[in-house]
From TrEMBL:
Annotated organism of origin: Saccharomycopsis crataegensis
Entries under InterPro entries matching the protein: GH, Glucanosyltransferase
Function: Splits internally a 1,3-beta-glucan molecule and transfers the newly generated reducing end (the donor) to the non-reducing end of another 1,3-beta-glucan molecule (the acceptor) forming a 1,3-beta linkage, resulting in the elongation of 1,3-beta-glucan chains in the cell wall.
Main location: other
UniProt EC number: 2.4.1.-
Compartments in which it is found: Cell envelope; Cell membrane; Membrane
UniProt keyword annotations, A-Z: Cell wall biogenesis/degradation, Disulfide bond, Glycoprotein, GPI-anchor, Lipoprotein, Membrane, Signal, Transferase, Transmembrane, Transmembrane helix
Protein name (Swiss-Prot/TrEMBL): 1,3-beta-glucanosyltransferase
GO molecular function, one term: 1,3-beta-glucanosyltransferase activity
The family this protein is said to belong to: Belongs to the glycosyl hydrolase 72 family.
C-alpha cells in the first residue's frame, strides 16, 4: 500500500496541468477570468479523414509541437484519434506548450451518417465515443469535443440535426454520470447558405442538457486579400449577432489564390468588428495533403519543411493581437428553435438514447474499440427514435460525421477534393472492424480491474490485469 501511494503521489505531481481549463460564459470562452480567443490550426497529418492518430505518437508530437510553438498558436483541432491507445505523452507535451485541444469524437467508421442516420445512432456508436471521452476527459487542456462535423451539408440533410443534437445530450449525460469535468460540447457546421442561421439557432435552442456549448463554422469565404465586407464576414457577424454561445471558425483559409495564402482575414477575425460574435478560429490545415492547404510538408517522422503559408501565418499571428475591450454577450439565454420548413427539417423532439447504452452510463464505456471499429453498419434494434426529453436529468429511454462533400456553401467550393470530417463515410463502410467491445454486464472483479487499469493508464504504473 505504501508503494502504491508513493507511486500515485509521484504520478499526480508529474501530471499537474500548466493550463487552466476553458469555460464558457455568454458567447465567449474564458481562461480563468480572462476572455480566451482561439488562435490555432487544424491538425491531422495524412488528411482530416486519416485513420492515423497524431496524438498517439510521441515522436511526431514532439516534431509538430515545436512548430505550433513557433507559430504562436494556442489551440489545435484533431479530427480522428484511436481511443484504444495512450495519449498521455502528447497531451502532456501540448499542455506544457500552452496548447489546448478541440477534439472530434467521431471516426470514419463510427459517426452519425446522412444516409441511414437513425441506424448509425446506436448503442455501439455511443459506447465508442464515450470510450474516447474516457481517454481524454482527465486532461485540463481539452477545450472541447465536437459531436459532429458538416453532417448537414445542404437543405436536404437537415433532418440529421436532431441526431447530432441527441449526441450532444448523450455526451453531456455521460460526463455528468461519470463525474468528469463538464467539458464543452459543440458542433462544426458547413457554411450552408440556405440554413446558416437555422443551424446556429437549432444547436443553441432548448434545454441546457441538449444545447450545444459552442458552435464552429467551416468558412472559406475570405480569399486572398479580400475585405470584411467583400468576403461576407460583415454579413455573418450581423446574422449571428443574437447567438448566445461561443462561435468560432473551426476551419478557415481559402486557397483559391495565386501563390501562397496571405491570411489577411486574421486582422478581421481578431478585431473588435468580429469579436463581439466570434472567438477566433483554426486555420485549415497543418500538413500538406493532396488538397493543397498545408503549412508544412512532412518529410519524415522527425522532420517537416515549412512552406510559404507557414511563414505568412506566423507573421500574421505575431502581428495581430487579441482585442482588449472584452466585447461579448453576457446573456446565455437559449435561442428560439427554428420552425420546420423547406430549408430546415429538424424539430427539438430528439431521438431516444438507445436502450442498450444505459449499461455504459451505469458502468462506464469499458473496452475501447479502436480507430477501425465500425459502428455505422450496426443497425441495432435499439437505434434511436424520436421522443426523449432534452433534460440531462432524465436519460431513461421511453422505448427499446460525415464528409465535407459538395454543398451550396463557399467552403465546399474551396475545399473540393478534400474531406474535412473525421467521419467521412456517407454510407455503410466495408472496412474491417476492430471487434465489438464486450457489452456483458460487469461483475465486481471486472469492474475493479477496469478501474485499476484506468488509474494505471493515467498515472503510468503497471497494471496486472
Amino acid at each position: 500500500m505504501k508503494l502504491f501511494s508513493g507511486l500515485a503521489l509521484a504520478a499526480v505531481a508529474s501530471t499537474v496541468s500548466a493550463l487552466t481549463s476553458i469555460t464558457t460564459k455568454g458567447n465567449a470562452f474564458f481562461q480563468g477570468s480572462d476572455r480566451f480567443f482561439i488562435r490555432g490550426v487544424d491538425y491531422q497529418p495524412g488528411g482530416s479523414s486519416s485513420t492515423t492518430d497524431p496524438l498517439a505518437d510521441s515522436t511526431t508530437c514532439q516534431r509538430d509541437i515545436a512548430k505550433f510553438t513557433d507559430l504562436g498558436i494556442n489551440t489545435i483541432r484533431v479530427y480522428t484519434v484511436d481511443n484504444s491507445k495512450d495519449h498521455s505523452d502528447c497531451m502532456k507535451a501540448l499542455d506544457d506548450a500552452g496548447i489546448y485541444l478541440v477534439l472530434d469524437l467521431n471516426t470514419p467508421q463510427s459517426a452519425i451518417t446522412r444516409s441511414g442516420t437513425n441506424c448509425s445512432y446506436n448503442s455501439a456508436y455511443l459506447q465508442n465515443i464515450w470510450a474516447t471521452v474516457d481517454e481524454f476527459a482527465t486532461y485540463d487542456n481539452v477545450l472541447g469535443f465536437f459531436a459532429g462535423n458538416e453532417v448537414i451539408n445542404n437543405a436536404n440533410t437537415t433532418a440529421t440535426a436532431k441526431y447530432v443534437k441527441a449526441v450532444i445530450r448523450d455526451l453531456k449525460t455521460y460526463m455528468a454520470k461519470r463525474g468528469y469535468r463538464a467539458i464543452p460540447v459543440g458542433y462544426s457546421a458547413a457554411d450552408v447558405e440556405e440554413n446558416r442561421l437555422q443551424a446556429a439557432e437549432y444547436f443553441n435552442c432548448g434545454g441546457d442538457g441538449a444545447r450545444a456549448d459552442f458552435f464552429g463554422i467551416n468558412d472559406y469565404s475570405w480569399c486572398g486579400n479580400s475585405s470584411f465586407s467583400e468576403s461576407g464576414y460583415s454579413d455573418k457577424v450581423d446574422l449571428y449577432s443574437n447567438v448566445t454561445i461561443p462561435m468560432f471558425l473551426s476551419e478557415f483559409g481559402c486557397n483559391q489564390v495565386k501563390g501562397s495564402r496571405p491570411f489577411s482575414e486574421i486582422e478581421a477575425i481578431y478585431s473588435s468588428e468580429m469579436t463581439g460574435v466570434f472567438s477566433g478560429g483554426l486555420v485549415y490545415e497543418y500538413s500538406q495533403e493532396s488538397n493543397d492547404y498545408g503549412l508544412v510538408k512532412v518529410v519524415s517522422d522527425s522532420e517537416v519543411t515549412e512552406l510559404q503559408d507557414y511563414t505568412n501565418l506566423k507573421n500574421m499571428y505575431a502581428k495581430v493581437k487579441n482585442p482588449t475591450d472584452n466585447n461579448y454577450k453576457t446573456s446565455d439565454s437559449a435561442s428560439e428553435c427554428p420552425a420546420v420548413s423547406s430549408d430546415w427539417d429538424s424539430d427539438d423532439n430528439l431521438p431516444n438514447m438507445p436502450v442498450d447504452a444505459q449499461q455504459y452510463l451505469k458502468n462506464g464505456a469499458g473496452k475501447a474499440g479502436g480507430i477501425s471499429y465500425n459502428t455505422i453498419t450496426l443497425c441495432k434494434g435499439d437505434a434511436g427514435s424520436s421522443g426523449v426529453t432534452n433534460s440531462i436529468k432524465d436519460t431513461t429511454p421511453s422505448s427499446s460525421s460525415s464528409s465535407s462533400s459538395s454543398s451550396s456553401s463557399s467552403s465546399s467550393s474551396s475545399k473540393s477534393g478534400s474531406s474535412s470530417s473525421s467521419s467521412s463515410s456517407k454510407s455503410a463502410s466495408s472496412s474491417a472492424s476492430a471487434g465489438s467491445p464486450s457489452s456483458a454486464p460487469f461483475n465486481k472483479y471486472a469492474l475493479f480491474a477496469m478501474v485499476y487499469a484506468t488509474i494505471a493508464g493515467i498515472y503510468g504504473f503497471s497494471s496486472v490485469f
